[in-house]
Design a protein that fits this description.
45% of the residues lie in helices and 21% in strands. The chain has 325 residues and is of the alpha+beta class. It folds into 3 domains: 17-198, Jelly Rolls (Sandwich); 203-258; 267-325, Homeodomain-like (Arc Repressor Mutant, subunit A), CATH 1.10.10. Helix 4 runs antiparallel to helix 5 (179-198), helix 6 crosses helix 8 (246-257) and helix 7 crosses helix 8 (246-257). It is globular, with a radius of gyration of 21 Å. It starts with 16 loop residues before the first strand and ends with a helix. Residues 219-318 form the HTH araC/xylS-type domain.
């Protein structure tokens, strides 16, 4: 009796596509690691470790390319074509036309930016991918691309827990093992972004001048809060520094960022605390609390629990256990 042994060849792993992020002096200050899901679509992680004001990617980009990116850690300042500076904080999603990233005017205030994004090149997107999106998910890609092309070189997507959840799932799947699942998640992401772009939460005000003015107010207030997170600024003080009224400030901020001023500020401070808890293991929780503007450790613990779902002590202990494995 002859026994037969059938070998099942493993499907080769999806190759990693790596690009360098190059600083002003031509030195590498970070990396972009991508994996192709469809022709013309990559999911990628972005790491930058520099406070450089200008950097670019080492690869050539198609003029129509764009990236939908989620800031997991750190922050980024991006100078747009309209002259305004956009600040991206941990937990926020933004869309940038890659034509601008070829030579971007950016600054990384805390020296670190870590994100995950989906890069799309409409010119290279394969016909099968377009058909799947259209027939199976009723995603009108042409409308999607048209909406993105009309928003300028930058668009800050209002905070949405569903977006954060999708990006977290994509990150956990890297490097790709189940390409089918990752493709589905990417299409789900596109559908959600379309809904947000079309929804009431996008800045919809009468007159382009009014829209730009209110967006400028919102980003100016954000910049003031990010500049000194130990400061307990009131709405009235912020409004005065932005040369507007408290009512206009609150309405503008909510329209641009999708959440009230104080909710955004608390989330930003707590995410910064998470970075410090991770990077400075020997510092006490009280010291970390003071550095992000909480003189009272109990109030810090309450704010941390409301935002992260656990206390800062348990969060740090879980982090330590994860690193020991």
């Amino acid at each position: 009796m002859v026994s037969r042994v059938t070998s099942i060849a493993k499907k080769p792993a999806t190759p990693e596509i790596r690009h360098s992020v190059i600083g002003p002096g031509g030195s590498g200050i970070g990396a972009l690691r991508g994996y192709e899901l469809f022709s013309g679509v990559q999911v990628a992680t972005v790491d930058v470790h520099s406070s450089a004001c200008d950097f670019r990617s080492s690869r050539n980009h198609d003029e129509g390319e764009f990236i939908i990116c989620y800031c997991q850690r750190g922050s980024l300042e991006y100078k747009c074509d309209d002259g305004l500076t956009r600040n991206i904080a941990s937990g926020e999603t933004f869309i940038i036309r890659i034509g601008a990233i070829g030579q971007a005017h950016c600054r990384v205030p805390h020296g670190t930016f870590h994100g995950i994004g989906v890069l799309v090149s409409p010119a290279l997107l394969s016909s099968p991918a377009r058909k799947i999106a259209d027939l199976s998910f009723e995603l009108d890609l042409e409308l999607f691309f048209e909406m993105l092309s009309g928003m300028g070189d930058f668009f800050g997507v209002p905070c949405d827990p569903a977006l954060s959840h999708i990006f977290a799932e994509l990150y956990e799947m890297l490097p790709p093992k189940d390409m089918g699942h990752m493709r589905l998640k990417t299409i789900e992401l596109a559908l959600l972004v379309v809904r947000i772009l079309q929804g009431d939460r996008r800045v919809r005000l009468s007159g382009e001048e009014s829209t730009n003015r209110r967006a400028s107010v919102a980003y100016q207030a954000q910049e003031i809060m990010m500049r000194d997170i130990t400061r307990q600024a009131t709405i009235t003080e912020l409004a005065r520094e932005c040369h507007t009224s408290p009512t206009v400030l609150k309405e503008s901020f909510k329209q641009v960022f999708g959440v009230p001023v104080y909710t955004w500020y608390r989330t930003f401070r707590i995410h910064r605390a998470c970075e410090l808890l991770k990077d400075r293991r020997d510092d006490s929780i009280a010291a970390i609390a003071a550095e992000v503007g909480y003189a009272n450790p109990s109030k810090f613990a309450k704010a941390f629990s409301d935002c992260m779902g656990t206390t800062p002590y348990i969060w740090r202990e879980n982090l330590n256990r994860t690193n020991e494995k």
